[in-house]
């Protein structure tokens, strides 16, 4: 029995390891939990406390462009007195309610803890507190005072919140203030000024994917007539979602779809109970991992709370799917996206308008290029319609007005000649070969550039196509580690069952006291 017991422990360990997402990012989500106070007292810390076990992982996985690490000691009176200043600045950048999210991650390391001794030595910490600034990925190399060409810099003007924020503003050319509040930032960078900004949108694509499925569950939108369209869209995500963790989550949903939503689930005698139990069944299921949704937008963030956000992220997702498919998948991708928007996009006018554009397509797509250009043209049609509505109703985002895409600043070669500026997309003599090259680059390699830099796509370089994801929900490829763990666990539990039955057969009857 002892051998079986230890095998069981090993298999459970493997299952636990394969079921967990990369846990370092979940540390960042604890900020919102820590601040969720119900007693009316002051909120807890915004600065993320790190230690030697999660330091590299958290800094590697953050979507922030910069990081600040404060090395302190909890017994140090000066450190305790400085903490309120540090937290005033951290409030602006950390957590789902951050005023300026995705720019700077503010963290702290307690050098008084023995676990952090080597980490603090790595940064030559000679007094408390010491603050360092740099790209998050570069912190793994540490810091030496006499080192040349350092990516990590010691902050030399930090003693008050005002001084620290002024120092930050000088480094990145911003004008942030301690009194800034949500969506009052007038210095949001324009998407047309820097093509590299699309790299941040991969996080918004994850956010939009998670939000879409939260809406589906919240409004109990999975019905017998919509079931098939959701399966098709999940298959598309498994093969071509730009985020690896969303691909894995979509595969998990497909593997379990028949069990979660059996075909007879919506029979007349089961319909009411089935819909009532859907949210409860999938309460803990997160299609892009535990750390998504984060609660904020980066590339898709508007200057107003009600602008951009989810709709922007969903458009980026659809464009990214359109440039990742192959020719033989183009019609499948077209119908999957059209049916998904028609059945699950909850904005009625937008849903109907998008499906009307889909209905105007009379011939099946045979080339991926044709589908990508159709989606691009459809997006511009939507923008032209909304430009007129938002101009008359004054409901648009003043910093991100609807425009014909791509603008000349991003793709000059897309515009060999152009008519009057007030004309719409149809009046522009587009070079569609150049447009397709732009779309492929912008929503392809540039979109996942941050992921590639952070090596989040390591061991995932093999191209996957929809030919690998067959129509049956039971035929989706499961990650090898998870499949191995499931197989081992199944064998172990089977062995235990057999062992238990054999013991029961050989067991002597218990004497009766009667």
Automatic annotation (TrEMBL):
Class of the enzyme per the UniProt entry, highest EC level: oxidoreductase
Keyword check for Transmembrane helix: yes
Transmembrane segments: 476-500
Signal peptide interval: 1-19
Catalytic activity: 2 R'C(R)SH + O2 = R'C(R)S-S(R)CR' + H2O2
Ranges for domain Thioredoxin: 41-173
The entry's keywords: Disulfide bond, FAD, Flavoprotein, Glycoprotein, Membrane, Oxidoreductase, Signal, Transmembrane, Transmembrane helix
PANTHER family (alphabetical): QUIESCIN Q6-RELATED SULFHYDRYL OXIDASE, SULFHYDRYL OXIDASE
Descriptive protein name: Sulfhydryl oxidase
Organism: Hibiscus sabdariffa (roselle)
